[in-house]
Amino acid sequence: MCISQQAREPVQGDYVSYEQAVEFHGHSCGGLASGYRVAIAAMKALGVGRPKDEELVAIAETDACGVDAIQMITGCTAGKGNLIIHDYGKHAFTFYCRQSNKAVRVVTNLDGLMPAEMDELRPKVFSGQASKAEIARYQELAHLGVDAILAAPEEKVIKLNFVDMQPPKKARIFKSVSCENCGEMVADAKTREHEGKRVCMTCYLSATSS
Fold first, then answer.
1. In angstroms, rounded to a whole number, what is the distance separating the alpha carbons of residues 181 and 29?
2. What are the structural domains, with CATH classification, of the chain?
3. Spatial separation of the C-alpha atoms in residues 77 and 67, rounded to whole Å
4. Overall pTM > 0.85
5. CB burial string 88-120: b at 16+ within 10 A, e below
6. Which of 60, 113, 149, 180 could be bridged to 197 by S-S, CB 3.0 to 4.6 A?
7. Residue among 83, 79, 59, 68 nearest 33 (CA)
């Protein structure tokens, strides 16, 4: 989807573009757009740029589409260990800056931004029962919703508050060892003992569930 220049203006700056986030995620949707707004608002509030390491930590309370925008924009990723996911089913995100010891919690609010008609069409579209016309209409409404999210004033899309929190633990690097059952390499801290052997979790679960 091509996002209009007018829709993009409120969030432009030295950030990854929304189009780049779409390319990373695979498609444009309301969840990705709201995550995009969340990420930029948090970075602005904390006065930080995209980190190269763990200078910024993100804690997501969902595992939905918005998390990909968080990874793309803020540089907080699962691989670096500075993206922590607690899937509580809430579109809420906390960001902690190690340098300043400041944190913000950002919650999305899309009331009135996503067309209500989408709620009627969604069950049919995702169950495979929608007609071509209904699918086209759903996609059209989704595009309109994305434009609305990107163009809306920040206070319409999100609620941001500074919060007090303890510094998150830094990512740990573990020694790799060979599982004494299957022979595959595994992080030593992730092994379990079974019948006198140090085994990987896969082998442990297989042995203890039978």
1. 44
2. 5-163 (3.30.1330.130), 176-209 (3.30.60)
3. 9
4. no
5. eeebbbbbbbbeeebbbbbebebeebbbeebee
6. 180
7. 68
